Amino acid sequence: AQTVTQSQPEMSVQEAETVTLSCTYDTSESNYYLFWYKQPPSRQMILVIRQEAYKQQNATENRFSVNFQKAAKSFSLKISDSQLGDTAMYFCAFMRAGNMLTFGGGTRLMVKP
Amino acid sequence: GAVVSQHPSRVICKSGTSVKIECRSLDFQATTMFWYRQFPKQSLMLMATSNEGSKATYEQGVEKDKFLINHASLTLSTLTVTSAHPEDSSFYICSARDSWRDASSYNEQFFGPGTRLTVL
């Protein structure tokens, strides 16, 4: 079974600064997908970024980028130029066969003005 | 982008009653939908995979007789919490996957806004 671990329950960052959220996972599969989702106070799940395991290049979406280390089974999210609207819960997720998602425990990010 | 709706957004019911939650894909067809449960300040836990025209697949530890899932059309899945009790109070989220791709390829899941269930 796959497990996803987020070791930082809460983090804070000053507006305009950079923050990195950590995620590790465990799997025996060789091909899979990893995701970071954002859940703001509205509780609507929003896809932030996606990484295919077979791609060595780290995914980037505007201010969001990942550091994917396949051998170490690590998948961290870097948020640059943090904005107040980035305040939310962030979940790392692993997609296994059948498109089922396993979520990490989440990291609550607070962006301070 | 693809839109998934849920109805109701919140519901309060008495212990012992049944509650039905609907999940609809508004602008795409979804042969597969997923139901998650989220307790306060916790992560999403997959409850079951809902397949159009067939029985749902439940995750280990989820009571299939308590959480009835019906996926009667390509755009609608329903979750019925039967004989609800206070411990069933939670936030229930559904997601849907575009059906035109086969299950072996990547399919983004689109999430509904969730339903808050409170059982008194």
- Total count of strands of chain B: 11
The largest pleated sheet of chain B is described as:
7 strands, mixed
Q: Please, what is the average pLDDT of chain B?
A: 91
Order of helices and strands of chain A: EEEEEEEEEEEE
- The run of helices and strands of chain B is EEEEEEEEEEE
Strand content of chain A: over 45%
Helical content band of chain A? under 10%
Oligomer: heterodimer
Q: What radius of gyration of chain A results from the CA coordinates?
A: 13 Å
Q: How much is the radius of gyration of chain B in Å?
A: 14 Å
Largest sheet of chain A: 6 strands, mixed
Low-pLDDT sequence parts of chain B: none
Content-based structural category of chain A: mainly beta
Shape of chain B: globular
Shape of chain A: globular
Q: Structural class of chain B, please?
A: mainly beta
Number of strands of chain A: 12
Give start-end ranges of low-pLDDT stretches of chain A.
none
> Whole-Å distance between the termini of chain B?
37 Å
Note the beta-strand portion of chain B. Answer: over 45%
Provide a descriptive summary of the structure in words.
The complex is a heterodimer of chains A (113) and B (120). Chain A is mostly beta strands and 113 residues long. Chain A contains no helices and 12 strands. In chain A, the strands form 3 sheets. In chain A, strands 2, 5, 6, 10, 11 and 12 form a 6-stranded mixed sheet that branches. A 4-stranded antiparallel sheet of chain A has the order 3-9-8-7, with no helix packed on it. A two-stranded antiparallel ribbon of chain A has the order 1-4. Chain A is globular. Chain B has strands at 4-7, 10-13, 19-25, 32-38, 44-51, 57-58, 67-73, 76-81, 90-97, 109-111, 115-119. In chain B, the strands form 2 sheets. In chain B, strands 2, 4, 5, 6, 9, 10 and 11 form a 7-stranded mixed sheet that branches. Chain B has a 4-stranded antiparallel sheet with strand order 1-3-8-7, with no helix packed on it. The model of chain B has no long low-confidence stretch (mean pLDDT 91). Chain B is built from no helices and 11 strands. Chain B is globular and about 40 Å long. Chains A and B meet through strand 6 and strand 11 of A and strand 4, strand 5 and strand 9 of B.
